[in-house]
Design a protein that fits this description.
Layout: E1 11-14, H1 26-33, H2 37-49, H3 54-64, H4 70-79, H5 86-95, E2 99-107, H6 108-111, E3 121-125, H7 144-158, E4 165-169, H8 175-180, E5 183-187, E6 199-201, H9 206-217
Parallel strand pairs: 1-2, 1-4, 2-3, 4-5, 5-6
Helix pairs in contact: 1-2, 1-4, 2-3
């Protein structure tokens, strides 16, 4: 009698800014609600072009957002330019017995809203609760190396072998994870992921990016 070996469980790891949100980021969408688009654009440029560290970015953004309310966070989340098909992709992943998680440098109070869309886990930088009454705790702000550490912990949590991970990202904060994950999808990506991704997708529908992984496994 032949015994069919069950398929190995996979863990799909998604970046948020520039990946699930096309052409924008949580910080940009939050700042738009406060009328601070120019100010956050200057901070983003310092982060992307001038070496501003993630924790210093968070400290400065926290100061900009001193009047932030929960209603404004909700409006920023709902109004963000999300890729189409996120819920459908995550539902399919879970129906297959696999897992999906979001790991982002953005504030946890924004990232964790994706749990309601079907993510098994959502990790962001730990910020004080909104409205702010406490300062930023710098060690709680994630960086690119933290994405790798969190991915490792999620593998242990879900019982997934690291070689069975799939990573989706768009920029330099994903490069370290892309360097160690065998199955990767560059989604609307910049030059930082050139040569690091197995698949590349440009467009507005996560179902199409996800199909690249499914087709390669067929």
């Amino acid at each position: 009698m032949f015994h069919v070996k069950p398929p190995r469980q996979r863990l799909h790891l998604f970046d948020l800014d520039g990946t699930l949100i096309r052409g924008s980021a949580a910080a940009v969408e939050i700042s738009r609600q406060l009328g601070l688009s120019d100010e956050i654009a200057a901070l983003e440029e310092s982060f992307l072009q001038r070496g501003l560290t993630p924790d210093e970015f968070a400290v400065r953004a926290h100061a900009l957002w001193s009047a932030l309310t929960e209603a404004q966070v909700a409006a920023a989340f709902e109004g963000a330019p999300w890729l189409a098909g996120i819920r459908e992709v995550w539902a399919d992943i879970r129906e297959r017995g696999d897992r999906c998680a979001v790991i982002s440098l953005s504030p946890d109070f924004f990232v964790e809203r994706l749990l309601d869309w079907g993510a098994d886990a959502a990790h962001g930088s730990r910020w004080p609760a909104v409205p702010f009454t406490e300062p930023i705790h710098r060690p709680s702000i994630l960086d690119a190396r933290a994405k790798v550490r969190i991915a490792g912990r999620l593998c242990v949590q879900f019982g997934v072998d690291p070689v069975d991970c799939v990573a989706y990202g768009d920029s330099m904060s994903d490069a370290e994870l892309f360097a160690i994950v065998p199955e990767t999808v560059a989604v609307n990506a910049d030059h930082h992921l050139a040569g690091l991704s197995r698949h590349s997708y440009v467009g507005g529908d996560l179902r199409e990016a996800y199909a690249l992984v499914q087709n390669s496994a067929a």
